[in-house]
Specification:
bacterial flagellum biogenesis, 5% strand, two-stranded antiparallel sheet, 7 helices, 2 strands, 186 residues, mainly alpha, 2 domains, Arc Repressor Mutant, subunit A
């Protein structure tokens, strides 16, 4: 039986704590640390006061291509790329630092959650590493946006330069606008 270094174990626990505080799911924790599932469950319950959410991780690239998630995913992946290329960080450290910088740049949605969760950001990086997704340059604003790797990208126009007609017109947005108008009249 191999001896585990106390320092290494402490570093793994610290990494798990940071990931949990950023909103990591259990599957992400298991993939990025060497701690046992039982240890991670105890740690998660101690930090959050509840059991970790159950269910499958995001597995489709399509979510990252839809209008609002594409904008947020593109912001995150460009931050991540910059850190990897210019700051010399890699792996989960690069994902965490890029995610923290992403959170500083965006406001949470009405539910209080950011559009892009840490788990989705981590999945996005994995999709880029497996060459399922890439970025294309918008022909109008020259920004780099997330696209399917095998799609055609000649004369690509991003979702900011050419917004879909229903962008931002969700039922929730309509209800929020109505309640804000009612408060102004009261």
């Amino acid at each position: 039986m191999a001896k585990k270094s106390v320092v290494t174990e402490a570093q793994e626990i610290q990494l798990a704590i940071e990931l949990i505080n950023l909103g990591a799911r259990l599957q992400l924790l298991e993939s990025e640390t060497t701690l046992s599932r039982e240890r991670l469950l105890k740690l998660y319950k101690e930090l959050k006061g509840v059991s970790p959410p159950k269910g499958m991780l995001p597995f489709s690239t399509d979510w990252f291509i839809t209008w609002l998630p594409n904008i947020h995913s593109s912001l995150f992946i460009n931050i991540h790329r910059y850190l990897v290329e210019h700051a010399g960080v890699t792996g989960i450290e690069a994902v965490m630092k890029a995610y923290k910088l992403y959170l500083e740049q965006v406001e949470p949605d009405p539910s209080g959650e950011p559009v892009l969760s840490l788990t989705r950001a981590w999945t996005l990086v994995r999709f880029f590493e497996s060459k399922m997704l890439s970025t294309a340059c918008c022909s109008k604003c020259a920004g780099e946006f997330v696209v399917h790797k095998l799609d055609l990208h000649n004369h690509y126009v991003c979702g900011l330069c050419h917004m879909p007609s229903r962008a931002g017109k969700t039922k929730k947005a309509k209800e929020d606008a109505a309640s804000a108008a009612a408060e102004l009249l009261a």
